[in-house]
What we know:
This protein is α/β, with parallel strands linked by helices. Helix content is about 45%, strand content about 10%. The protein has a five-stranded mixed sheet, with helices on both faces. The protein binds iron/sulfur cluster. The site of iron/sulfur cluster has 14 residues, from helix 6.
Amino acid sequence: MRTFWDELALYLEYLKAIGVKALPKKKAFERFLKLDLSPPPKSLAEIAKEIEGCTRCKLHRTRTNIVLGEGPENATLMFIGEAPGRDEDLEGRPFVGRAGKLLDQMLGAINIRRAEVYITNVVKCRPPGNRTPEPDEIEACLPYLAKQIKLIRPRLICTLGLVAAQTVLATTQPLSRLRGKIHEIDGIKVVVTYHPAFLLRYPSYKAQALEDLKLLKRLYEELK
Ligand code: SF4
């Protein structure tokens, strides 16, 4: 059985392999969530209009499409991943590649339809070569995610992967410390699990992901 330190070492190796140089600044997300938006967004279409042609960070230079997210404006459950990949960048939709197919299967495993949840990412443009978004890119893009959360007001958020968990929870703790717990931000419950792309690479973690999904399903049924 893997210890916490084995798991941490594996994560650090994974992060290094995908080019992570630094993790997001602590409290960044809390700060953005507390922003008094003036005027607050009235619809997702308004946020889409605002983000159109965005050049707030260097990712605009290499993207094909901005991937804002998709799902109902009144969704109870929101999934937040890290960043669009190649297929998402080409289609302009979140989670449509191999990782997207696995996310669909994960949802199917707990009898939740993709059409009933809102799906987005921390950053809305694809980092070149699918590298992890850098802290300045995350900070530049966070106001859009904060607006999506403030508008949709999901009752439950599921973060996918380390970057999304650390950004949303404004923490630097490893995933192993964050999983299996019910967190809360701004009155919204948050459950943490692995990113489907990580599970494609390390399928032995799927059993743990299923435990996270069961917790998510239990909360979802309670909150619906
Ligand atoms: Fe703008 Fe976000 Fe795209 Fe950066 S990642 S250019 S902040 S939309």
